[in-house]
Specification:
By secondary structure, the protein is an alpha/beta fold. Helices cover about 30% and strands about 25% of the residues. It has 18 helices and 28 strands. Bound molecules: adenosine monophosphate.
Length: about 600
């Protein structure tokens, strides 16, 4: 498909888009005005995400409107109105106080997409604790490191996840004072050293007054991965809700009465910003599906729940494309009004496939854990250039920058020149630091810009096009994986001398995690050992992070300073000329 292809925005809108004229919206926009669309805590006590998400609606006309509709794996449906969600999150906030957790304490939640997760997230925010989601498919090692980095004080999880991934680690987590366990199938639990989540909540009042919350109070901790070192905890504050709300309205075009489905898991930033916060602040009904991807189930959900705005990811779209348009046509999907995608490059074919199959193109948008919310988007009223991430949000100033020989950074003015995607700091959901790592944070800024680590170009019409990552982090099925974390886990195996990990291109998952290992003296390559290593890594890291392929090599290529040359491993794997590497920047963090 040529890069000049344009999908024109239809002008016969069913609902006039919230952002009708891009240039005018940019000219008129200010974050101060966006903030005025929120209510603020009563008595001028500040700004709290959970108040804007639920309490504000619970005390108004939306009190009895469904806020979240949770679809269980086995077909059970549980719906919570804004009023109910407000009361339940009050109970959770009171429960936190009972176990002695207060302002600034980290409350981690590791669970599938079940109602208890949403209640805990909102309750933790009401209590001014810091909500930190952990992806439930992480293995014990990623869980341990993230709990330790953020010094979790409270962990909410399910009985089975606790047994499988945490109970054995407990003695190495002295800071973890309270574990609140959600029993399976609604049953109570009696695991030693834990509280039963439901019993505890039932003992607590459903009334809670949110105490004064400064917009800069820490609210969220989201882990992300870099090329080297431990995972990084991106810190977000209550003020972020201004961006969650505004981007939900402008980029996802949320309208009152919408049924919205964000398919992302709240273990990742998309599932928190747009699976929990933005739909609620915008007062829509949000679908939460506990089950994993399944084309029939997904189309069934779109049809039966009359989803109008659907926010999903390229890997899922590619899997739906594989399942074929004929399957989609068996369902009545007329309620759909707006489709959006995020997380990895969206192939132009997928945008067009959306148009052919649903009568609506997918609107790609771009952002990352650090930005906390959507920064670049294809808006409902905009012509789409398939393959482009779109244009910066009103209130967001993006640039393509390059490093000059003297080390300073300058914006590239000419169109279509590749460089690093950079943003002028100042939007409300910008991360305020990496937890306890000020130097790592400082390194993200130069020349008055936040440097995103992504390479991109901007065309003459101001559309941004993703080119690739500047570093070695891997995007697999939409999830960011740090090669160092995988290498470290492999090196704990007695046979492994060294390990190098890359992302290998994959037609569906974009990349799969592939490891190269060299063996210690006395160990020989064999299929059995390969299988053992795959299993070993999977047990430690969990399915979402573990390598899918392992190759044995005699030695790993290293730079003179001893760093593994992952780019060389990748070039060899892909049969690319190794000489090309001279043009690639070595990633230093
Ligand atoms: P995460 O912090 O896990 O949300 O990952 C953020 C990274 O995902 C970005 O820095 C990009 O590398 C990639 N990404 C997110 N959205 C897009 C998009 N629309 N197109 C291409 N890459 C994307």
């Amino acid at each position: 498909m040529s890069s000049d292809t344009i999908i024109k925005s239809p002008r016969d809108w069913r609902e006039a888009p919230n952002l009708r004229d891009y240039e005018a919206a940019r000219a008129d926009f200010s974050w101060e005005a966006a903030r005025r669309e929120l209510e603020g805590l009563p008595d001028n006590l500040g700004l709290n995400i959970a108040h804007e998400a639920v309490d504000r609606h619970a005390s108004g006309p939306k009190r009895d409107q469904p806020a979240i509709r949770c679809l269980g794996k086995k077909g059970d449906v549980r719906e919570f109105t804004y009023g109910e969600l407000s009361a339940l999150s009050n109970r959770f906030a009171n429960a936190l106080q009972r176990v002695g957790a207060g302002k600034g304490d980290r409350v981690y939640v590791m669970a599938g997409r079940i109602p208890e997760l949403y209640i805990a997230a909102l309750g933790a925010l009401k209590n001014r604790s810091v909500f930190c989601p952990l992806f439930s498919a992480f293995g014990p090692e990623p869980v341990r490191s993230r709990l330790a980095i953020g010094q979790a004080r409270v962990l909410v999880t399910t009985e089975s996840l606790y047994e499988r991934k945490i109970s054995r680690l407990r003695s190495s987590l002295p800071f973890l004072e309270s574990v609140l366990l959600i029993g399976e199938a609604g049953k109570s639990t009696n695991a030693p050293g834990t509280h039963d989540y439901h019993r505890l909540l039932n003992q607590c009042s459903d009334r809670f007054s949110i105490a004064a919350t400064a917009p800069e109070d820490v609210a969220l901790l989201h882990f992300t991965s870099g090329t080297t070192g431990t995972p990084k905890g991106a810190v977000h504050v209550h003020e972020a809700v201004v961006a969650h709300h505004a981007t939900g309205k402008l980029a996802l075009d949320l309208h009152p009465g919408d049924v919205f489905w964000c398919t992302a898991d709240p273990g990742w930033v998309t599932g928190a910003s747009y699976g929990v916060i933005a739909p609620l602040t915008n007062g829509v009904t949000s679908i939460v599906d506990e089950a994993g991807f399944d084309p029939d189930r997904w189309y069934g959900i779109l049809q039966n729940h009359k989803v109008s705005v659907w926010y999903t990811a390229p890997t899922a779209i590619r899997m739906l494309m594989k399942a074929g348009s004929a399957l989609a046509r068996k369902y009545d999907l007329h309620a759909l009004r707006f489709l959006a995608s995020v997380g990895e490059p969206l192939n132009p074919e997928a945008v067009v496939w959306g148009k052919e199959t649903f009568g609506l193109p997918f609107h790609d948008n771009w952002w990352q854990t650090e930005t906390g919310g959507i920064m670049i988007a294809n808006f409902a009223s905009m012509n789409i250039k398939p393959g482009s991430m779109g244009r910066p949000l009103p209130g967001v100033e993006a640039a393509i920058v390059r490093k000059k020989s003297n080390g300073t950074v300058e914006a590239i003015q000419e169109p279509n020149v590749e460089g690093e995607l950079a943003l002028r700091p100042g939007w409300p959901s910008m991360f305020r630091g990496y937890w306890n790592e000020p130097q790592r944070y400082e390194k993200c800024f130069a020349g008055g810009y936040y440097l995103t680590g992504d390479l991109a170009r901007r065309d003459a019409d101001g559309y941004y096009w993703f080119v690739g990552r500047k570093d070695d982090v891997i995007k697999t099925s939409g999830h960011l994986v740090g090669p160092f974390e995988v290498e470290s886990a492999l090196m704990e195996h007695k046979a492994v001398a060294e390990a190098g990990v890359i992302g290998k291109p994959d037609p569906v998952a974009m990349e799969i995690v592939k490891a190269f290992v060299s063996l210690k003296e006395g160990y020989a390559e064999s299929e059995d050992l390969r299988r053992e290593l795959l299993g070993f890594a999977r047990t430690r890291l969990g399915a979402a992070v573990a390598p899918k392929q392992i190759d044995f090599v005699a030695a790993l290529p290293r730079t003179r300073s001893g760093k593994i040359m992952r780019r060389l491993l990748k070039a060899r794997e892909l049969g690319l000329p190794e000489g090309d590497l001279s043009t690639l920047e070595t990633s230093e963090e």
